[in-house]
Structure to design on (89 residues):
């Protein structure tokens, strides 16, 4: 969460259920388990830099928890501060 916006938004959403869950889980351990998920990590190939595996994993969790389609998830990520802060996007 390098963005000034995300850091400023965090106090606004800290009491949301999503952020309470965020504080409970060991995300570093999960990130470690996701390492090597992208083929590009092993080949050091060209092309655009992929999104962080942990951020994408968190995004998929939010979609499942809230029963959102891909399109609805994309929209929610644009308008919901708790989604933005939780995923780091």
């Amino acid at each position: 969460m390098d963005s000034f916006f995300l850091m400023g938004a965090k106090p606004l959403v800290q009491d949301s259920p999503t952020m309470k869950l965020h504080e409970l889980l060991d995300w570093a351990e999960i990130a470690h388990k996701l390492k090597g998920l992208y083929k590009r990590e092993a080949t050091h190939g060209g092309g655009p830099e992929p999104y962080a595996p942990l951020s994408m994993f968190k995004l998929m969790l939010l979609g499942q928890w809230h029963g959102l389609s891909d399109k609805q998830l994309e929209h929610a990520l644009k308008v919901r501060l708790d989604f933005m802060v939780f995923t780091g996007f």
User: Anything to note?
Assistant: Helices lie at 4-13, 17-24, 27-34, 39-43, 53-65, 70-79, 81-87. The chain has a mean pLDDT of 83. The radius of gyration is 14 Å.
